[in-house]
Amino acid sequence: MVLEGLPSGYRPPILVVQHIPASGPTHLAEIFARRTRLQVKEADDKDQLRSGMLYFAAPGYHLLVEADRSLSLSQDDAVHFSRPSIDVLFESAADTWGAQVAGVLLTGANEDGAAGLEAIHRNGGLTVIQDPAEAAMPTMPRAALQRFAPDYILPLRDIHRLLRELE
């Protein structure tokens, strides 16, 4: 619902971390390619970020961004029992891009993402948290809200609208 309806000419690259088991193939890129107008792919090590591309973290690998606008994959230890970890991506984006990054934290069952979103906030980036009242699993949004006050606390439909405005 958040990414559906973004126009094919949407300029910012979008990076997504979904907690999925490393065993077996994932079909997230294929599923989202059918549901969105964006170009979609599973991130590869050293991919150069392209405008309008939706990148999914590969199962079993942390996803990081580099200063040269490339992506890195890492098999470092799990963070909050997760690899890929939202915190790892958000912290690398905050360190690399500072105020030029926007982080969106949605539903989830652990605290992953809270520290990374706070890092984005500290570095002047835009921070958005899904309203815990509508989240299927509100642990992640609540964990972030206990750490800091984000720029926005929104239901999914309004997060979608905000993303369109960021274009």
TrEMBL record:
<dbReference type="InterPro" id="IPR000673">
    <property type="entry name" value="Sig_transdc_resp-reg_Me-estase"/>
</dbReference>
<dbReference type="GO" id="GO:0000156">
    <property type="term" value="F:phosphorelay response regulator activity"/>
</dbReference>
<dbReference type="Pfam" id="PF01339">
    <property type="entry name" value="CheB_methylest"/>
</dbReference>
<feature type="domain" description="CheB-type methylesterase">
    <location>
        <begin position="1"/>
        <end position="159"/>
    </location>
</feature>
<keyword id="KW-0378">Hydrolase</keyword>
<protein>
    <recommendedName>
        <fullName>protein-glutamate methylesterase</fullName>
        <ecNumber>3.1.1.61</ecNumber>
    </recommendedName>
</protein>
<dbReference type="InterPro" id="IPR035909">
    <property type="entry name" value="CheB_C"/>
</dbReference>
<dbReference type="GO" id="GO:0006935">
    <property type="term" value="P:chemotaxis"/>
</dbReference>
<dbReference type="GO" id="GO:0008984">
    <property type="term" value="F:protein-glutamate methylesterase activity"/>
</dbReference>
<dbReference type="GO" id="GO:0005737">
    <property type="term" value="C:cytoplasm"/>
</dbReference>
